[in-house]
Each structure stands twice: as structure tokens, then as C-alpha cells.
Amino acid sequence: MKTTLLHIKNMVCPRCIDAVRNLLEQAGYRPTDVTLGQAQLDQSTPADPVSVAPMLREAGFDVIMGRADQLTEQIKSALVEYLEHLRTARMPLTTSAFLTDRFAATYSHLSKVFSRTANLTIEKYLIRLKIERVKEMLSYNEMTLSEIAEQMRYSSGQHLSNQFRQVTGRSVSEFRRDLMPRRLSLDQLA
């Protein structure tokens, strides 16, 4: 099956976009647009996802074949964007409103597909994503816990602290004392 659109798993940042673009170009394909989770190829260089998969897998990516898996990866990418929306929007949308606007589908449908393919609810994935962002902010040691909680839209520093311990098994203080704190890459969250 030849295609001009590849759905790619584990693309979580701008460096991933550059890496996938470079891999495809080195393999002789002409990507016209590469975004988080997708690579659009020039019509003259369609690719068989099965033949492209080993090259991408070697670099830590993977081609997604099924529609449910594709949607799940798109939701994950959208949730990364949602974190930025949360941080910067004056009146941020709820997670469900953000996703239903993005995908023009009911939240119930999105939630069912995500839970089935990721073995994790959207809410739990978002919490893990937020905690990884909090770890990043804590490691910079530039903000207080209350400032981080406010920026990440937690109701209080205590709420953030409780959720941090629940997800990581460690307190914020223990994390800060650690000289080499362990963070997870986004593809390890689900």
C-alpha cells in the first residue's frame, strides 16, 4: 500500500520533526510537511509504511498503521499543545473542550479510543504529562512550587505536591535534593 501520509509515533518535539525529516530525505523521500505525529510526502515519492518502519524504528520512532493508534498519537500531540495553552491562555479551555474543538469529535469517542489503545485515560496521561513538565521546571530551580502550581493551573502548591508524590512516589523536596533527577521522555508516559 503506497501512501503520501505517514503517521509516526514518538514524535514529541521540534527536534523529532527535524530528525524524521532528515531520515526521510536521506532515504530518498521528499517530505513536503512534517509535523508532530505525521509526515506528508511529495506525490512523486509515496512510501510503503511497512518499508519505512524499520528506518524510523531504528531512530526511536514507529509508523502507526491502525486508525485508532493514529488518533491516539494525535491526541497525545494535542495534549502537549494543550499544556502550553494552559500555561499561556488567560481563560484556558477545559481539556475536553480543547480536544473536541481540535478533532471535531465527541470527547466520549476520543476518550474511549485513547483508553483502549493507550491503556490509560486521557486524564491520567495529561497528569503524567503535567508532572513531567513540573519536573523540568523544578530542575531549573527558577520558580517556587507555588509559582509552578499557578502556571500549570493547579489549585494550590499543596495540590501539585500531592499529585507529584502520587505519580512519582517522591516528594517535591526529595526530587529537588536529587542531583540527577530522573525525568521521563514523553513517549514513556503511556
From TrEMBL:
Q: What one GO molecular function would you report for this record?
A: sequence-specific DNA binding
- This protein's UniProt keywords: DNA-binding, Transcription, Transcription regulation
Pfam short name (any one):
HTH_18
Q: Where is the HTH araC/xylS-type domain?
A: 77-178
Put simply, this protein is called Helix-turn-helix domain-containing protein
Q: Which organism is it from?
A: Hymenobacter rigui
